[in-house]
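Entry 14. Ran structure prediction on the chain below.
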Amino acid sequence: MLTSIATVSISGTLEGKLQAIAAAGFDGVEIFENDLIAFPGSPAEVGAMIRDLGLSCTMFQPMRDFEGMPDELRSRVFDRAERKFDVMEQLGTDLLLVCSNVSSASSGDRARIVADFVELGERAGRRGHRVGYEALAWGRHVHDHRDAWDIVRAADHEAVGLILDSFHSLARRIPLDSLDAIDPDKIFIVQLADAPWLEMDYLSWSRHFRNLPGQGDIPVRAFVSALMKIGYQGPLSLEIFNDYFRGIPAPVAALDSLRSLRLSIDEGARAIGLTAQPEMPARVRCTGVEFIEFAVSDDESASLATTLSSLGFRETGRHRSKMVRRWQQGGINLLLNADPEGFAHSHNLVHGPSVCALALRVENVAAATRRAEALSINSFEGRVGRGERKVPAIRDMSGALIYLIEQGTEAELWERDFIALPGGGEAADAPLRAVDHIAYAMSNDELLSWLIYYFTLFDVAKPVMTEVPDPLGLVQSQPIHNEDRSMRVVFNASAAQDTLTARLARRYWGAGVQYISLSTGDIFAAARSLRASGAEMLTIPPNYHDDLETRFDIAPEMVDAMRDLGIVYDRDEAGEYFQLFTRAFEKRFFFEIVERRFYDGYGMFNQPIRMAAQSRLRDDSDLDL
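Output, structure tokens:
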């Protein structure tokens, strides 16, 4: 399918938008009238730019308040259409979008509306043009694509067709099986947009809260599948009205948009047993986190090693050719990379001590790298010593690395690349088991891009985004997870400049890992072990535990133990959740210890308590985290 996007979907000047759209890899572009009006050159110059960039102009839009107008306005409406046809010829497109009338002067008389489209079709056909009719969700007389299709069918003109928009159809919850009655050859173009489910007027909802497929809640994939099922093979074009998109750089928005559109095509086809894009395998199935790598200096490496030792980790290996140390506990592998050359060193110079890479176990590395390439995700190749294993890697949205390791080959990596240390085996009483989840902090305008990156590449689900109150503002928290929860990632962002999340993003000079959550089978035993080993833990205010006894039916002795050990608690209808937090390392990141008892969330009620406790530890220079 031809991929397209409307210029209204991204920010900037028209020429900047076109350059970003072409660079992202789109096939075509819809020219939105306001963008053309604001351009200082002629439509012919815009058409030349489009062609020079290797794009096609898929449509010019919109033609508003056309059908059913009274006699005294009708001639003016058709004069306006003729002028739009003139512009289309200069732009190099043959398709004009006509959206359903919202004017109070318009008539809902169907015979009159059909007659208007017959005449418009005649005028367009004489000039080699086509017109597509779109039912706006807030249209005065026509706000349902079934009504628009009835009008197009009644007009029965080869130059008059239908334009479908997922938002207008799905916001009104029009049954998808209604698409079965439409002739796919009469659908001239399909526009896609996702959106969160909101209770508000359709116009405001559409103009401010549309987002990319995969970022919202309406069933866009099912909409695309239904179209493919009836045989539609025409252009798919994004039309996004969103204040957020107007605030991020055009190249970023364009690349996010293309990834989202390719996801829509791919997932829509797969849902009905087709493969629309053979070059793009299915979303990557991840089976867990194999290791997390920290970029550190020599001094930071020694300090972090002390922290890890207090958490029950033991050093079990040294890299054969690099200054990388392996620390291990249960199924957790943490690498401290203090090598004076290479990617980790550069990462440390920019971001300070931080997570520079993580390795994910996947079912098929070759397929994963092909999908990443199809989504324009950059790959990375680092220095590989003689006899060492080459591990494919891609860059995430921050430029950090995600290594891809074939499930079942993990042992080979450790045997070939690391020298095992004598006596470096795991302690029998090691309290921690696995990586539960990884949480990132980022600026507010990056969150949806991170979501699109992970959601288009990996086979993950997207639970509802939540708002977490920081003492100095709200934090948006968006979790994702794979089917068996062996990979969980949380994206945290805040528009408030003084929240811990926002300050961390500034300290990092970009998005970075805020904390790493490690699971245990016995939170109380783990807490006692950490205390005995001297781990620096976050102090929870006593009022919190006093309140627990009023919120939950918990035995007093259990509350006393949680109070003594600094454990926080949450419960839902499925189970219980216990959390324990370390102090931050170098004011960058911290570790969280959790025990899940059939609980699937992230203890969001406790996050404000944690953030408030961390805020109290700020010194004059900045924050503890």
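The longest strand covers residues 432-443. Will compare against last week's run tomorrow.
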